[in-house]
Amino acid sequence: MIKRSLIAIIIFLSSCQERNDRRKVFDVHLHGAAVPGQQLDALTANDVHAIAISTSWPQQQAYQSGPQINVLHGLLLPCPGGRVPYSRQPCFEDGREWPSVAWVERQIKAGRIDFIGEVLTQYQGISMSDTLMYPFYALAVQYGLPVGIHTGSAGPDHGCPGFKEDMGNPALLKETLQRFPELKVWLMHGGGPYIKECIEIMKTHPGVYTDISVLNNPGIVPEKEFRTIMRSFIDAGLEDRLLFGSDNADISTSIEAVERLAFLSGKQKEKIFYLNAASFFKSK
Ligand SMILES: [Zn+2]
Predict the structure, then answer these.
(1) Alpha helices, DSSP H, located in the chain
(2) What 3-state DSSP class applies to 150?
(3) Is the pLDDT confidence value at 7 over 50?
(4) Ligand 1 mean position, distance from CA 30 (Å)
């Protein structure tokens, strides 16, 4: 009897071990925290091996890769009113809304920018295809940098009076893609509530990815709705282009939300948690 329960315990422990060994998470949607070290510790404790971070310029440069975690640095722009939405610190030391194109190019050459994002045109009340963005998209193409664009709704208290929900419709990306067909883009938050439009543009443009941050936060999007949304992405054949993100929500809750999707196979979860992001950012 004792022997049998001992065997059961060993089997249980080894299956846990196996699961943790296998799971690797790439969080493509992160913003800064008051104590970066604490944030990184929580992430690595939850199997996060790589992150793509966008926050104010001075803060994000404080995040560095280490043996446990690979850090990709974004360039957040434009900066409505000169401040990062929600956290409200100045994006750039001189308080400007748009960095100069020449400055951005210098930072790219110095290896300080791995992707352009989070693109916040919507918080400025303009389209992601506004021509103001074109010089930055041109740099992204020239240097092979991915671009991450906020789409869909926003939470309360972002502090940006110009925010326009309809400027977050993923269909607005069409114009940009016509002009810059080689641009590597991911639409953030799955475009929610414009899920249909997000799926449509992903189907017509095989280079477009999306992250599932916020959608996987049960405090904002009910579990059942998240399940329906994920089903529609999978049914549309997009499992290779879904990226995991937490958008600073509790990391273990965000991961669990995906783990609980019983219709996903182990391989599909692996793709969403890590593999898709690894290939998306690889050719940077
Ligand atoms: Zn966002």
Answers:
(1) 2-22, 36-45, 57-60, 101-109, 134-143, 173-179, 195-204, 223-235, 251-259, 266-270, 276-282
(2) strand
(3) no
(4) 9
Q: Is 107 exposed, middle or buried (0-12, 13-18, 19+ CB in 10 A)?
A: middle
pTM: 0.91
In this structure, the dihedral spanned by the alpha carbons of residues 73, 75, 80 and 81, taken in order and rounded to 10 degrees, is: 80
241 DSSP 8-state letter: G
- Ligand 1 midpoint to CA 17 (Å): 34
Q: Determine contact, residues 91/77, Cβ cutoff 8 Å.
A: yes
User: What mean pLDDT value characterizes the chain?
Assistant: 92
- The CATH number that domain 24-280 falls under is 3.20.20.140
Report the separation in Å between the CA atom of 253 and the middle of ligand 1, taken as the mean of its atom positions. Answer: 18
CA of 125 to the centre of ligand 1 (A): 14
Distance of CA 191 from the midpoint of ligand 1 (Å): 10
Sequence ranges of the domains in the chain: 24-280
**From the CA of 201, how far away is ligand 1's center (Å)?**
18
CA dihedral 100, 81, 193, 30 (to 10 degrees): 70
pLDDT digits (tens, 9 = 90+) for 47-63: 999 999 999 999 988 89
pLDDT digits (tens, 9 = 90+) for 118-167: 999 999 999 999 999 999 999 999 999 999 999 998 888 898 989 999 99
Output the CA 162–ligand 1 centroid distance in Å.
15
